[in-house]
């Protein structure tokens, strides 16, 4: 009879050391929002598509939401070639209004274990911020609707910087405005532009919820994996 495969204890011990090393000295968690804490990407994509359908229908077929994750609504439309200021402002407001209506309709949900993770962080005296390319109004609407807003000391949003992710501006603003040392903080992201943004700001990063990033060393799995395998074993 073939023997059952034995655990690779060396690999397990190395993972434990890596976890301890990565979180050593960390007191602040800087969370992306869409796709990281809340399952909002499908609603954002639909809001973009519906706005393009009514205002710029020739762009619908070529629109790929994945290419624009982490960017502000305005920046996304600029990337699509919309340069007229009045049209840009009107389309930005339409898209954001459509998204907020979906939030109010209950179409946006928190990811499993978002609440448990944030509760555990607060219980263990970690500090938390949101750093997102979303507008402040949209971010606050979603977090309030889902009962998560009070877990964060502040939000840094896409309408506060000239550039959003993958540029480092949002994370740098958070670090500078709230007197956070990069060595004491870690960013939690779900998309490559966000990872690039955080790393450019000098931060360590953990990536979650996106299996397409599983080949990256920053990928840790789901929020439950982060909660169970990383946080609880290092507090």
What does this structure look like?
There is one protein chain. The chain has helices at 9-23, 41-55, 73-79, 85-104, 114-123, 136-145, 169-177, 192-200, 223-231; strands at residues 28-31, 38-39, 109-110, 127-131, 155-156, 185-189, 204-208, 219-221. The protein is of the alpha/beta class and 235 residues long. It has two domains: 27-39 and 109-234, HAD superfamily/HAD-like (Rossmann fold, 3-Layer(aba) Sandwich); 41-104. It has a six-stranded parallel sheet with strand order 5-4-1-6-7-8, with helices on both faces. A two-stranded antiparallel ribbon has the order 2-3. Helix 2 crosses helix 4, helix 4 runs parallel beside helix 6 and helix 5 (114-123) runs parallel beside helix 9 (223-231). It is globular.
Summarize the structure.
The protein has about 240 residues and is of the alpha/beta class.
User: Distance between the terminal alpha carbons, to the nearest Å?
Assistant: 42 Å
In what range is the share of β-strand residues?
Answer: 5-15%
Mind telling me which CATH architecture of the largest domain this is?
A: 3-Layer(aba) Sandwich
Order of helices and strands: HEEHHHEHEHEHEHEEH
Across the major sheet, the strand order is 5-4-1-6-7-8
The helical percent reads 40-55%
Mean pLDDT across residues: 90
CATH structural class of the largest domain: Alpha Beta
CATH homologous superfamily assignment of the largest domain: HAD superfamily/HAD-like
What's the CATH topology name of the largest domain? Rossmann fold
| Alpha-carbon Rg, integer | 19 Å
Number of strands: 8
Tally of domains: 2
